[in-house]
Every structure is written in structure tokens, then in C-alpha cells.
């Protein structure tokens, strides 16, 4: 991170033993998308979010996704890298507990008329 002393924090990528680095191939894009992708990537470089590296061990492809407003969102395909990294030792939070914490452990009451809107149907085959 620019301006952060490495003595304070250093990122380390832990990879499973025996995992071989994967260099994904370069994708071809439609010619009209190329300037939009370059603009988006240049924005990331200017703010210091990404930087060019030499001799990379892992190369992940980008996937441009068009937003509703016509702009391009640049996503990165980290599937190969995710498969090579060990899973976290802590589970994801349980949504029900998160809701309880955010409501101050108060019960949420529904009016009888409101319950008709929120009927849960379960279909069974005979």
C-alpha cells in the first residue's frame, strides 16, 4: 500500500503446498470495449490500487462487465488462485445472529394481515 511502512503491515499470500502457479491466457475483447477497459485500468493504476509487476507467478484474466448505465466494471477471475489457497479457519457469520445483534435482541412482530403477504409455500410430489 502506498505510503504504508512495511514494518506496520505486509501482505503474504499463503498457497497450499504443491500448488502450481497458473498463468491464465489473455482474452480477446471487442474493439469498442478496449478503450473503456484501458480507462478503467488506468484509473486503478493512478490511485495506487493496482501496479504493474515483473515476473508474476500467478496471472489472472480480467472480465469486463457492462453496467446498466453503460460503463464497464473490470472484474478479475481469481478462481485458480482461490483453489490454490487454503480455506479460512473461521466460518461465515450466521445471518440470523447478525439480525438479532442489529435489532438489539428485540423480537420482530408481524401484524396478522402482514403474514398473508409472506406465506412460504413448499411443494411436494405425491
UniProtKB/TrEMBL annotation:
- InterPro entries linked to this entry: DNA/RNA_pol_sf (IPR043502), RNA-dir_DNA_polymerase (IPR053134)
- The domain of life is Eukaryota
Q: What is this protein called?
A: Reverse transcriptase domain-containing protein
Its lineage reads: Eukaryota, Viridiplantae, Streptophyta, Embryophyta, Tracheophyta
Amino acid at each position: 500500500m502506498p505510503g504504508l511502512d512495511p514494518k506496520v503491515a505486509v501482505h503474504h499470500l499463503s498457497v497450499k503446498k504443491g500448488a502450481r502457479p497458473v498463468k491464465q491466457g489473455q482474452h480477446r475483447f471487442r474493439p469498442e470495449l478496449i478503450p473503456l477497459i484501458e480507462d478503467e485500468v488506468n484509473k486503478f493504476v493512478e490511485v495506487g490500487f493496482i501496479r504493474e509487476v515483473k515476473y508474476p507467478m500467478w496471472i489472472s484474466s480480467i472480465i469486463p462487465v457492462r453496467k446498466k448505465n453503460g460503463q464497464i466494471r473490470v472484474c478479475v477471475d481469481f478462481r485458480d488462485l482461490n483453489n490454490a489457497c487454503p480455506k479460512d479457519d473461521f466460518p461465515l457469520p450466521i445471518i440470523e445472529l447478525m439480525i438479532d445483534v442489529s435489532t438489539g435482541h428485540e423480537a420482530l412482530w408481524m401484524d396478522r394481515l402482514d403474514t398473508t403477504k409472506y406465506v412460504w409455500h413448499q411443494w411436494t410430489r405425491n
